[in-house]
UniProtKB/TrEMBL annotation:
NCBIfam families: TIGR01440 family protein. This is UPF0340 protein lacNasYZ03_09610. Belongs to the UPF0340 family. SUPFAM superfamilies: TTHA0583/YokD-like. The lineage of its organism: Bacteria, Bacillati, Bacillota, Bacilli, Lactobacillales. It comes from the Bacteria.
């Protein structure tokens, strides 16, 4: 696997999502990732911290430059808890939980790398559906962490490595029925 290509694909994908979603500094971007799927294997069967490191570097370069918080989703063995910075946890009043993600046991490679690399990383059980946008790399199911209403985004890439990606943003709920007039800039 060409890790520089994985990093470049991750950076490109996240750049396009940030642009298309309108996410702003201080908001949360959710990443769910299967390094196994990036390698062309079934989720959870070939965990790779090297792949996760390349993904993290590409994603973090974009988010850090924009002042956007990363929320790195753990696997289902940690109930899809998320790695966030202490700053994000305190800003959003999330509750810290006690677990350390591991690549082959509970958490997954991407969450493990995020926990190791992110300055002052903590684990939170839930971000209360506060994510503004995100990327699901390899079918990890991130929708529960995004504000309702989740809208799929199509970008120029449909895969990172061998993993299919699903990109999403949120939009405000429509209310008012057929008589309502909506703000086009929020759609």
């Amino acid at each position: 696997m060409d890790l520089s290509a994985v990093k470049a694909q991750a950076k490109q994908a996240v750049s396009e999502i940030v642009e298309a979603s309108g996410i702003k500094a201080g908001q949360i971007f959710v990443v769910g990732c299967s390094s196994s799927e990036v390698l062309g294997e079934t989720i959870g069967t070939n965990t790779s911290t090297d792949v996760a490191q390349a993904l993290y570097q590409g994603i973090n370069e974009v988010l850090e430059a924009k002042g956007i918080y990363l929320a790195a989703q753990c696997c289902e063995h940690l109930n899809r808890a998320l790695v966030v910075s202490r700053e994000a946890m305190e800003k959003y009043d999330f509750e810290q939980v006690n677990a350390i993600p591991q690549p082959n046991h509970a958490g997954g490679a991407f969450a493990t790398v995020a926990y190791q690399e992110m300055p002052d990383a903590v684990l939170v059980e839930d971000i209360q559906a506060r994510g503004e946008a995100g990327i699901d790399i390899g079918g990890t199911l991130i929708g529960m962490h995004l504000h309702p209403v989740v809208v799929p985004l199509r970008i120029s890439l449909d895969k990172i490595g061998e993993a299919r990606i699903i990109c999403a943003r949120r939009r405000p709920k429509y209310v008012g029925g057929q008589r309502a007039i909506y703000d086009e800039s929020l759609m």
